UniProtKB/TrEMBL annotation:
Name this polypeptide is given: DDIAS protein
Residue ranges constituting the Replication factor A C-terminal domain according to the UniProt record: 9-95
Pfam families per record: Rep_fac-A_C (PF08646)
Organism, scientific name: Oreocharis arfaki (tit berrypecker)
Classification via InterPro entries: DDIAS (IPR043522), NA-bd_OB-fold (IPR012340), Rep_factor-A_C (IPR013955)
Listed GO CC annotations: cytoplasm; nucleus
One Gene Ontology biological process: negative regulation of intrinsic apoptotic signaling pathway in response to DNA damage
Length: 130
């Protein structure tokens, strides 16, 4: 699954999702179902306390090379250098910011994060391993 079949030089046209970090199962990397106290993996059945959930990057992009448009999703720690922190730490920073600012509507901080990610990626050219 991690083997690269080829390289694609392309520019990012748009960001396809606004949620770049998700709670991920440590066994199978599927999205966890969280409630206030527990997490559950619907794929492999892994469970635990919500506070112990791991987080992972998932960035869906629309990209273009000289001939075609592609939808591509980039997962995991390869995005750490672009965000400057691990997904785990970014999630913690977001939670801490919302708590310290007394922000009850987390939509404004989420919007600011989306704008920052768009600024960093849209219009830039990258080499993608596909």
């Amino acid at each position: 699954m991690n083997s690269v079949q080829g390289l694609l030089a392309a520019s990012v046209i748009s960001i396809q999702n606004s949620c770049f970090v998700y709670p991920a199962c440590q066994n199978c990397f599927s999205r966890l179902t969280l409630d206030s106290r527990r997490f559950n993996c619907p794929k492999c059945g892994c469970t635990g306390e919500a506070k112990d959930a791991s987080y992972r990057y998932r960035l869906s992009l629309k990209i273009a090379d000289t001939n075609d448009l592609f939808d591509i999703t980039v997962f995991g720690s390869c995005l750490d250098p672009f965000f400057g922190v691990t997904a785990e730490n970014l999630q913690r920073y977001i939670q801490d910011f919302n708590q310290l600012s007394g922000e009850t509507n987390t939509e404004s901080s989420a919007r600011a994060l989306v704008q920052a990610v768009e600024t960093c990626f849209i219009g830039k050219r990258f080499i993608f391993g596909v």
